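Example protein
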Amino acid sequence: MKHGKIYFSAAAILLMITVIVFSCKKAALDTSDPNNLTTGNYYKTAVQLKSAVNAAYAAMHQNNLVSREWYYLHDTRSDEVTPGGGQLEVPRRQLYENTDDPTNSVMNSVWNGWYTVIFRANVVTDNAPNVTDNVADKNETVGEAKFLRGWAYFDLVSMWGGVPLLTTVPKSPAAFQPRASVDAVYAQIIQDLTDAAAALPAKSATDKGRATAAAANAMLGRVLMQKGDYAGAKAAFLKIPTTGPDGYALTNRYLDNFELATEFNPESIFEVVFVDKGDNSYNWGGESATESQSTVRNQEYCPVAWRNLIPSDKYLNEFESTATGAVKTDPRFSYSVYQTGDKYNNGLSTLTDADQNGNSSILNGVTKKISWRKFMLIYQESAGTAGFHPGGNNQRIIRYSEVLINLAECANELGDISGAVAYLNMVRARPDVAMPPYPTAQFPVVTKEDVVKAIMHEKMVELGDEQVRNIDILRWRKKGYFSTEPIAKFHPGRDELLPIPQSELDNNPLVAGHQNPGY
């Protein structure tokens, strides 16, 4: 059994499908009957409240979100990927080509998935006042719920703008909410993550896979950066400990962040738990809160399987290389991608062009078949079985290396160029990376503008295909940091945001008629 698995109560899930209980006569309700559970008589203990937050975790790690559609939505809105062949489904290709509309199924899945997380987090916060048997556990559970709700709203507001803001469970089917302002949504996110950071324990006191104070502060820092509050973001990042049993540090080996045997390593601040069930029984239908879930990423991006999205030429050519004048070729290139001739299956098999069906990439002017290596499992799998199955490789959501690069951005925006460069050089000094420190011939880091370029470079080569690039692009585009638009087929005034899903427009009368511009 994989350490860190979270279990889900079927009774709790059933209760959270709806909180509206219809009855002919109020007096007829027997609130002590265990066969007639309602939210009014169930959430009375810390254990029962924990089952509610487990349901929120369940929604977060299923097909609509992190195990599949979430990474597709982020990746197709970045410049790090390109389609790997003709079998990329229409809704995913639409997102990549900026031809999506309010009916796009991938977008709708993520929207619905995050609102399911929000609903279940609200069940926790609404019912917490009723729990008195274990106040410490209750407060920790509320902190987890607020972390998940804050993350959900950050994804929503950064990709859709103002969205309906719900912080309690609706009391009737007509309890619609209009689109809140972007500032109001951010204010709620900041409050949630601040509360979570204060309530959650450090990692040594937390079951693996659950949110910690460090995870809340790291997410809060991301949010404050997006808002332009670099001083606040820096303060949040600096609360993440770096020593002792609760401290975080870079791993010596870059690939430790993407392989099975090195999950929950000292660099990992928050990761989503997946389980290899060994029977290919991936739940394509969306979510089952009473069973573990695997991730299909190993199948979708794998060089010997579907290869639906592959590294873009822009991403590949971002790496420093002796072929383009750098002192050293960045080893993170070979750690991040597979190319024709690379070994897998514990070094016993070799990738060929025939293995990697679909499009080629251009690297330093040479056309090659190149695919993602991050989070793939073929490094340990035989040529006959590799790739065509879901896997149990955890999705690392926040790594300490990202915190260091974010601290560099904060320092640079606050006028501390030398401090920014020092943070970047910490990332480059990882033992099995050991890239020459800045300044280099290609990155002189003399002015703020120089350091911006180094930060943008370092973040792409360190965190490529880790679902942070599209949010960074939104922030940097607003600040005018791109000399040319990074997204192909980008339509200014429209593609900064996704369209509000058609189902929301049809079913919520307070949102109808309030679509994002251009759709």
Summary: The longest strand covers residues 268-272. The first helix runs from residue 10 to 17.
